[in-house]
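[09:14] KT: can someone run the structure on this one? pasting the chain below
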Amino acid sequence: MAQTQSADGDAVPEERPRSVRVVLLALMITMMLAMLDNMIIGTAMPTIVGELGGLEHLSWVVTAYTLATAASTPLWGKLGDMYGRKGVFMSSIVLFLIGSALSGMAQDMGQLIGFRAVQGLGAGGLMVGVMAIIGDLIPPRERGKYQGMMAGVMALAMIGGPLVGGTITDHWGWRWAFYINLPLGVVALAAISAVLHLPKKRAQARIDYLGAGLLTVGITAIVLVTAWGGAEYAWTSARIMELIGIGVASLVGFVFWQTRAAEPVLPLHIFRSRNFTLMSVIGFIAGFVMFGATLFLPLYQQAVQGASATNSGLLLLPMLGAMLVTSMVAGRVTTNTGRYYVFPVLGSVLMVLGLYLLSTMDTGTSRLTSGVFMAVVGLGMGCLMQITMLVAQNSVEMKDMGVASSSTTLFRTLGSSFGVAIMGALFNNRVQDVMAERSPSIGSKITEQSAQLDAASLEKLPEAVREAYQHAVSAGTHSAFLLGAAVAVISLVAAVFVKEVPLKGAGPKEETATTPQATVAETV
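[09:31] RB: done, structure tokens below
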């Protein structure tokens, strides 16, 4: 196979276009695995609890996975930079599949939580590997349209996940919600093994175990604070304060050590690039908004607009469909012109506007109106989701491609954790306050049982209580989305300061467009 030289002198194989398409298909399958998992499992959770018991530990099925994913994400990126992308990526897929198989065989809730942590360790390398390999194979100028395709896969997974999860659970049993990963993963492994050819690397430096440990402890503490704060423990409780102290101390120690480590897990010099730092901020905000919106929009439509919980995935279609279309358009425009500055700015403006419009919804808002508001948010997120990764990768050297990809993914993951926790706490408090005002006699009992009653459960309540709960949910979503709009303003401020650096690589009219190759991105 012919070799070319990238700007930093590394040998880079020239892939045939057909081989690249096969690799991209395998990468899309892998991304589908990463995105579908939590969506499918969420639908299957009531059945899992019914068989395994352990309702009091239910949240840990998700928390264990999230913790392991967040903590391992930077490590997978660094290992790929040090030892070669292909072997590390395939290892993460194998670990994810092992965790999936073990989760499907779990006999009690404790085993399921442990095996979900194993699955999460592998999942940390899936998204990072996909983005970093695209960064190796495709020049930045061409990368936009491929990352737009990846955004489309994310949107389809979020739409179809709950529907697929419900169908699998009803017809095959909840264990197949995990087993379904195995054939898809094997297909991806086979394709990647056969047609992906990247130069192997042999790093002389040792892995920064101390830095990895400090980062893991810090991230774990942060995620636990967002998961437990206001739910398991009061925000001012000793346990939450301890976790905050541990998290801050670990991260400060991590930053200090990274300035001295021979081969740091997260090289701080990448943050000297203004664009990379700004994209990290925008990615954090996008994660904050996106996962908060996907949590509260179905809840509002079920409780206030009387929609069926079975169709919860379809309820998000206006937002996710708009995100899919915009991502594809943004990718094409970026590929054809090599310019991208307009997308972070426009995306942030639309996101702020859309969230503000969602905050105006009340008990009289029609589904058509809420659908239009959701579409505005989706248009904004479509401009941001993949452009942030593209610009971040374009802002670092090739040797830091994995670290850049993992850092961007990590900030988005942490943003989603903070978004769900903070918006969730605000929503729940507002629901409880309004229920106490409108239905003081039994309102507290309703909110203690659940702040997420579905349409069928609401029909069984007395009319006065049902109306009170609908007003409470409407008030809760108003507060949550208004907070989201305020936070999204930070993304707009960051986007304004982005400097448009020309993307490396040929445009579609040039001959080299058919020969994807890794290139060194220009730093800002």
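[09:33] KT: thanks! The longest strand covers residues 3-5.
[09:34] RB: yep, looked fine to me
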